[in-house]
Amino acid sequence: VCSYDEMALKDLPVVVNQILKVTGQEQIYYIGHSQGTTIAFIAFSALPELANKIKMFIGLAPVATVSFASSPMAKLSVMPDFFIWDLFGRRDFLPQSHMIEWFAEHICAEQPLSKLCGNIFFILCGFDEKNLNVSRTPVYTEHCPAGTSVMNMVHWAQAVHGGKLMAFDFGARGNMKHYNQVRLCNT
């Protein structure tokens, strides 16, 4: 269970170093999509030695801010963190499952229902019908949501609510424990 700043500062360096070790290369190309770009922005700015191992960073649908997010999911960011924890627990959030795969294959593949299935993405990402290729909805639905942790969703809610990307806010006591300070700095 982790959030995007932990993915950036802990997971990404391990992955990059393993790739370099296995391939024998000194640098790699990094292609990130959405949250993968956020992780890269954080990691490459906070860890210059990691940034030096990247030959080129390509960002697809880059996310450097969520202060203008307007999707129904973003509006949930006004809920207090404890409410999200109580509602969803401390576990996976929308993990991939056979049920989602079946739903994509048997429901979303049917033409009249493709638009309805497309609304799942509008709830998560905001409504913009011209950006949805309805004929591909079954493929999108089968792979998204791909799952994350409730902690990561809380972290995104903190970013939307606070208007900027910051380290995960554990509260005053938790921040002292994790960061040795009460208030957070920008990530």
Automatic annotation (TrEMBL):
Q: Which InterPro entries match?
A: AB_hydrolase_1, AB_hydrolase_fold
Q: Which residues form the AB hydrolase-1 domain?
A: 5-160
Q: What is this protein called?
A: Gastric triacylglycerol lipase
Gene Ontology MF terms in the entry: hydrolase activity
Q: Give the gene symbol.
A: lipf
In terms of PANTHER family, this protein maps to:
LYSOSOMAL ACID LIPASE-RELATED
UniProt xrefs under Gene3D superfamilies:
alpha/beta hydrolase
Does the keyword section mention Oxidoreductase? no
Give any single GO term for biological process. Answer: lipid catabolic process
Keywords associated with the record:
Lipid degradation, Lipid metabolism
